Amino acid sequence: MNKPTRARTLTGTALVLAASMALTACGGNGDAPSSGAEPGKQTKSGEAATVKDPLVASYDGGLYVLDGETLKPAKTIELPGYNRVNPAGDKDHVVISTATGFRVFDAARQKFTDAEFRGSKPGHVVRHGGKTVLFTDGTGEVNIFAPADLAGGKQPESRSYTSAEPHHGVAIELADGELLSTLGTEDKRTGALVLDENNKEIARAENCPGVHGEAAAQDDIVGLGCEDGVLLYKDGKFLKVDAPGDYARIGNQAGSDVSPILLGDYKTDPGAELERPTRISLIDTRTAKMKLVDIGTSYSFRSLARGPHGEALVLGTNGVLHVIDPETGKVEKRIDAVGNWTEPLDWQQPRPTLFVRDHTAYVSDPGKRQLHAFELDSGNRLASVTLPRGTNELSGTVSGH
User: Fold this and answer.
1) C-alpha–C-alpha distance, residues 29 and 282, integer Å
2) Average of pLDDT values for 77-96?
3) Residues with Cβ < 8 Å from 251, sequence gap 6 or more?
4) Which of 35, 99, 354, 377 has the fewest beta carbons under 10 Å from its own?
């Protein structure tokens, strides 16, 4: 999940202050069973009962762990402050971005592990090609590890790289071991470079102003968002896809291994405190062409995802989950997910959030303190739950899906 450009102004000090000032919610276990076991129930070995296909939802002061099929709460974890949640890339773990760095949480067993990557302003977490890549904005450090190495709860072996200067960046490792990482400073971001397995630079592009976010398409092609289009890395070279007009920010994207087309947002007002666009961008990596589609409703940076067949998914502020054919741009299905909502000005404030795993779309409704699960092919609602508090971030485990 990506965050808006203005997020980079939040310093590590501010994160710590936010953590210390946050209200701490009541801890303890949830009030419903999970996977046939009472919440908090322990096995004979003394460990918590394993949660099947767990989801993790954050709230101001902690985390909820839920069963991915029934949505029944399994446990509540106290964790002060604003915390981001990302898939780690295996069947058990998620990565939590905290005030002190990236921490690995065993969602299946509802506990933090010993694995941690400390550093100020932990940013993007990217999964691709069997590797997970962490970018720490406050230090410019990149860490790459195999999710399989998280088993056992210990610190995984990792490859690291440090950017020339700290910045709000992102990195991704390709199937052949090449590492693509953004270029920039705290004040200005310009493009990206590519390193070989020995961290030797082999390609560079500095024609992507305000570079933000990434997505990988079919055939290991990567797109980075710019303020005037998208920068592609394809066949060992950078290629620019220009957007219409002088300013067109595509800061958040979603890709699919089974589709050559990337889904992106599309903003055209550089002076807006918060632009609420109704158009999305579809970037064809085969032709380096961009198509704009107006879906008739605004959306937020937590509204974009991809389905199991490469469908482009957009959760609108009209409460509808739009299922879009990326080849044609046609909205093929509309799933009534939640009620009407308005994107808050502060990017850290809760808003309905979309997380997709396999054929299931999970949608949060923080105003009603609810989470819902929908089957994408049929559009049917599979499960719903009302929680003690409204949630903010929503994610889960992903391996095997």
Assistant:
1) 43
2) 96
3) 2, 4, 5, 210, 212, 213, 225, 265, 267, 301
4) 377
